[in-house]
Inverse folding.
């Protein structure tokens, strides 16, 4: 008996086509009609003899010059529509929810720092807000992004400078933040001190570990073999880290209703906390690293049953 089936190519094509959404088929036809019309107007001829270089130039011309039927640029029309939708609360795309300080505190304290997994997640929950991390920033954080501040005599000040050498999309070469962010000692509540936890995590890294990533995979034998190291020489996956905030909320037993909880909630919570402290929008974006004040407005918009968070406008110098 053969391990291979006998389904014909025509039958396979029908099955594949049957799984393609109707809107996708319509979109393909629409784009193809636009492209053929464009080629006709430009007097481009597509044939088996068309070279790759010629085809590349045709596609470049099409991509740059293609406009809507009314002559408007696609990007300008899209941006205008997006701004119009953002002005309508019920049409606005739900942003990652900012959480109350007590809720975030509960999500932090559920983790036991005397375990490899618990130490990393507790540190993550604290510094992701302190540093206003974007959703995927934690998965790309590396040891060399952190540097202990020193006085002229060489002694440390108790602050740790954070300045990642990657852009928002972790691409594009070295690109430092214009202003560093800082981890500061929490002497009032040492249990939640980010500097102490960061140093503890550094100490738990085995000398043989070569990976520069901040968060590493837990060694499954850490508590089964005397003297076993806590972490393996491999970073925690991005998909795993992306669930840490939501996992913390569930572990803390929080009733979050319909709130959208993601790792980006750290950044939203940071903005919310700064706004509640009375800082103006310009001061907030300087701390969080947002491009402009429009970037933080979604985090300050009201949700059903809650008032809008008001920022005190920064006084002019």
């Amino acid at each position: 008996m053969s391990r291979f089936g006998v389904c014909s190519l025509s039958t396979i094509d029908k099955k594949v086509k049957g799984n393609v959404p109707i809107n996708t088929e319509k979109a393909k036809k629409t784009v193809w009609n636009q492209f053929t019309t464009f080629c006709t107007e430009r007097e481009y001829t597509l044939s088996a003899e068309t070279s790759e270089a010629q085809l590349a130039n045709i596609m470049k011309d099409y991509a740059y010059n293609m406009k809507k039927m009314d002559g408007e640029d696609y990007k300008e029309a899209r941006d205008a529509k997006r701004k119009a939708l953002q002005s309508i609360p019920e049409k606005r795309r739900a942003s990652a929810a900012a959480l109350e300080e007590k809720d975030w505190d509960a999500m932090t304290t559920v983790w036991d720092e005397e375990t490899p997994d618990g130490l990393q997640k507790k540190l993550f929950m604290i510094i992701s807000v302190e540093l206003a991390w974007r959703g995927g920033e934690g998965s790309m954080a590396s040891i060399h992004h952190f540097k202990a501040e020193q006085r002229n005599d060489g002694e440390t000040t108790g602050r740790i400078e954070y300045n990642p050498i990657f852009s928002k999309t972790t691409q594009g070469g070295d690109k430092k933040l214009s202003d560093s962010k800082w981890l500061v000692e929490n002497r009032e509540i040492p249990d939640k001190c980010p500097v102490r936890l960061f140093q503890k995590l550094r100490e738990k890294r085995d000398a043989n570990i070569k990976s520069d990533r901040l968060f590493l995979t837990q060694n499954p034998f850490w508590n089964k073999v005397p003297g076993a190291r806590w972490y393996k020489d491999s970073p925690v996956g991005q998909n795993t880290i992306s669930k840490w905030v939501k996992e913390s909320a569930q572990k803390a037993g929080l009733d979050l209703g319909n709130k959208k909880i993601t790792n980006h909630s750290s950044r939203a919570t940071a903005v919310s906390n700064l706004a509640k402290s009375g800082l103006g929008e310009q001061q907030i974006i300087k701390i969080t690293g947002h491009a402009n004040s429009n970037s933080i407005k979604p985090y300050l918009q009201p949700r059903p049953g809650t008032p809008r968070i008001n920022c005190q406008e920064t006084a002019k110098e």
About this structure: The chain has two domains: 10-66, 101-300. The beta strands are 146-150, 156-162, 181-184, 216-218, 231-235. Residues 145 and 187 are 23 Å apart (CA to CA).
